[in-house]
């Protein structure tokens, strides 16, 4: 009996195996790219409102897309400091499937600070309402119901007795609820020092361009801290606070995982926008709205 050769079958198997592997790899890569695009859309789009918000309308409106196809959205952050209350009104644009960019900021401040009304809570509403009117003038009407409105109180309210601070925050919340903007249950709160630092860090990362601003190597903070702290006895004019600040910053950067050779861009303003914590805080808040809503969508 003649033996049938299996060489043809082996050749087919050798070709089919790598071909199947390539097809599987292609499908996997395609899925990853699709998943990333979907995640980016969910992360940066403000077309979803948070649970518990005053308005249930989605942020996408007839004016939500600019003529060039870029999505446009806004955020309002009140900074209730010890010396005054300030409002930051941010306008963002986002090209399709890309990171948003800050395109405009409106800023206005009023004195005294919110804590000055601790014994007359009703009077605090007047200044808040005046700053809300600025936001109404700056933001197109069709965006009002989709624009998050937040107040973060800092040092002034942190120093007040708890009951007085909460009464002030409750009054602000009442004024916010009566406004036409997007107001959540967590729209007013007192920040601690860590929150301010994190929000400022988000701001720096969001705004900094590699081509702009001064630069400093991470290792320079450590060198400066050692020098200032070591020379306190001989050069007391440098002061203990400089020693503590530099030590804190160097340890903070170390804990963030930055290598000593990492170059940081440092500037007070970037594209004429103050690098305060307010931008980072509102951007983080907008992101939190999206994260709360996305699992249910």
From TrEMBL:
Keywords: Hydrolase, Membrane, Transmembrane, Transmembrane helix. It holds the Pfam family GDA1_CD39. It is an enzyme of class 3 (hydrolase). Its EC number is 3.6.1.6. One of its GO terms (cellular component) is Golgi apparatus. The active site is at residue 196. Its cofactor is Mg(2+). InterPro entries: GDA1_CD39_NTPase (IPR000407). The keyword GTP-binding does not apply. The keyword Cell membrane does not apply. GO terms for molecular function: nucleoside diphosphate phosphatase activity. The chain crosses the membrane at residues 12-31. PANTHER family: ADENOSINE/GUANOSINE DIPHOSPHATASE, ECTONUCLEOSIDE TRIPHOSPHATE DIPHOSPHOHYDROLASE 6. Belongs to the GDA1/CD39 NTPase family. This is nucleoside diphosphate phosphatase.
